[in-house]
Amino acid sequence: MFNFNWLSDLSNSWGRFFIILAFIAPLVFAFTMKKSYIYEGAEDNTWWRNLKLWVLLIVAVQIAIYLYF
Amino acid sequence: MLNGIDYLIVLLYFAGILWMGYYFKNFVHTSTDYFLAGKMLPFWAIGMSIVVTDIGAVDFIGLTGQAYRYGIVVGNFDWIGSVPAMILAALVFVPYYWRAGVFTIPEYLGRRYNIYVRTIHACVWLLILTLNLGIILWATGVMLSELMGWPIMSSILVTAFVVGLYTILGGLSAVVMTDVVQLVVMFIGAIAVLILGIWQLGGWSAMVQKITSLGPEYADHFSLILSPNKNTPYPWTGIFFGLAIVLAPAYFIANQTIVQRSLGARNEWHAKASVLWGAFLKMFIPVLFVFPGLIALGLIPGIEDGDRAFPSLIKHLLPPGMTGLVFAAFFAGLMSSVDSALNSAATIWTKDIYERFIKPEANDLHYLRVGRIFTGVLLVFAVLSAPISDLFEGIYLYIQTIFSIFQGPTLAILLLGMFWRRTSQWGGLAGLVGGICVATILYMFKESLFTIDDPFLYIAFWSFLSGLVIATIVSLLTRPEPLEKIRGLVYGLVLQDNELQTKLRKQLDEE
């Protein structure tokens, strides 16, 4: 049980699925946050200071990497 | 291996770093300036500092060596093993630490739970950071001695002198701003190796073809997901449950050396953005430090000791001048790890131990002096204790074991404390102590409980789960914390009014 042997029958595709899910979860979480919380403390509300877009960019690159390798 | 121009580059690098450290001395007037850079740091500097702090000199050799042996799967540590955790840290934990106005993670835990949780956490961190310093210095000294024939103690003393000087004088500002230069130097050095290597191999496709044709054992060298049935230390189950779910969040949420930089941000947006910027830069680490291992395998197959891959690659690839740059990058990795450990240990000692138990009512200048003196004492201790690391082969393993035993339960009580307001102070204490006990028992019986040699990823997961369950049960059996105590410390219980928050903090400290 401690070795997760019960998961050994799952294919690598399931592994990839879980890992991609681990990237999507924080992305969804970020997009549920209020705009005021995201911009809290920012000097202005220009589009590039929207941290949701930063998260989107990072997650998109990571998902592409895990789909390729 | 090095010639005149290489030595000149390394010397110039040392002189530049020393000058920068000395310059930032002018900005240190209070303990907040020293420990939190006067809360003036911009996001881009903090993000770069977070990344370079995470990559040590030993990683140059270690990561490349592991990639040579196991392939691109090692990149998981910087991708799934960092990025989701950093996003969570950036958007949830760091803003709450920043709003709480704390200097250290133990201080946050003390406010959320009680003094016992704070003290246990502070003492364990202090122990880990102190012992680790000597080990980092010794391991790098040994590496330089083997590669270059330099005397071990000379390398250690020169590094300790330079790092000590700028860290003692300039505090966190000097640490972060020298880290920025160190990251640039490291990236330039690594990019040079990457470009020259891939060019010599005839491009990416040629490299893949060359490596996979080496034999069936190299078939998975370009796969990030490995089956648990394979004989590998990095099956996807361990990577997902141990690394992504537990160790990575614990590292980026509960690690004082990482979080302290963001606490020095000039405002809340910069604190959040710094960790996201760090996550973006972190995505390049496997490209710069794991791919060279694959390049070495393509160019020089058959090296028996993977740790020789990086030095062999430098010898094989780089012209004079570039070798000096890579060595400067190597020192940058060493110095960034040492300066961060020194500064964080000094902060924990001064804020969580000295100010709390030894001299609570002293003025700010006194704490600034204590922080500087402790940094110096710690460095002398690290230099003197460095050779001892050689006497006990297992000491490095012991430190890593203490670290991994501690991380799962710490994450459990931080998550519960931040997301569930019902978590009580006794639940937090029981979760931390109980989780540590479970992890220790699992380590003691690891031969009979686990099928792989070093099951630290699995132990981290089970100790995290135990901490979570114990903290939940004890919390439900004990009295909930009053709302006034946890306001501003729990997600959803936001307190934007700084003046009110300071008043509340003072009131709680008095209690």
Distance between the termini of chain B: 62 Å
**CATH architecture identity of chain B:** Up-down Bundle
Largest interface, with counts of residues having CB < 8 Å to the other chain, equals: A-B, 38 and 47 residues
What average pLDDT do the residues of chain B reach? Answer: 85
- The name CATH uses for the topology of chain B is Sodium/glucose cotransporter
Secondary-structure-derived class of chain B? mainly alpha
The number of E-state strands of chain A comes to: 0
Element pattern of chain A in H and E? HHH
- Kindly state the percentage of residues in helix of chain A: 55-70%
Shape of chain A: elongated
Which descriptor suits the 3D outline of chain B?
A: globular
Radius of gyration of chain B: 23 Å
What is the straight-line distance between the termini of chain A? Answer: 29 Å
Question: What's the gist of this structure?
Answer:
By secondary structure, chain A is mainly α. Chain A contains three helices and no strands.
List the helices and strands and how they pair.
The complex is a heterodimer of chains A (69) and B (511).
Chain A: H1 12-31, H2 35-39, H3 51-68
Chain B: H1 4-24, H2 31-36, H3 43-54, H4 57-70, H5 83-100, H6 105-112, H7 115-148, H8 152-201, H9 204-212, H10 236-254, H11 256-263, H12 268-282, H13 285-299, H14 309-317, H15 322-358, H16 364-391, H17 395-419, H18 425-444, H19 446-449, H20 456-477, H21 483-486, H22 498-510
